[in-house]
UniProtKB/TrEMBL annotation:
Domain Nitroreductase, chain residue ranges per copy: 10-72
UniProt source species: Paraglaciecola arctica BSs20135
Entry-linked SUPFAM superfamilies: FMN-dependent nitroreductase-like
Phylogenetic classification of the source organism: Bacteria, Pseudomonadati, Pseudomonadota, Gammaproteobacteria, Alteromonadales
Protein name: Nitroreductase domain-containing protein
Gene Ontology terms, MF aspect: oxidoreductase activity
């Protein structure tokens, strides 16, 4: 799937929020697929910014490809990764 944030000028929904909500929708689709037993990979890369690719989807300058979502079945069931200490990611501010 190609996930696109199609810019629609709106007084209450700025461009950055439109891109963020499209990104949230991609994550939700991927998690829904995983919950049903599928595997998925969300990628962006250079094609997301390529003018030829954007032209193929008839996108404007403001429109954004937020990613390519690959879904399918996996022959290998990934093993859970060991849990890491949350102290590696969080810091208390006093």
């Amino acid at each position: 799937m190609v996930a696109i944030a199609k810019y629609i000028p709106h007084d209450k929904v700025p461009w950055v929020e439109q891109v963020a909500s499209a990104s949230c929708a991609v994550q939700a689709m991927q998690m829904a697929a995983v919950a049903q037993g599928f595997s998925g990979v969300w990628r962006t890369g250079s094609y997301a910014q390529d003018p030829i690719v954007k032209q193929a989807f008839d996108l404007s300058e403001q429109d954004e490809i937020v990613g390519f979502l690959y879904l399918g079945s996996s022959e290998v069931i990934p093993q859970p990764k060991p849990k890491r200490d949350s102290a590696e990611f969080f810091e208390n501010w006093d």
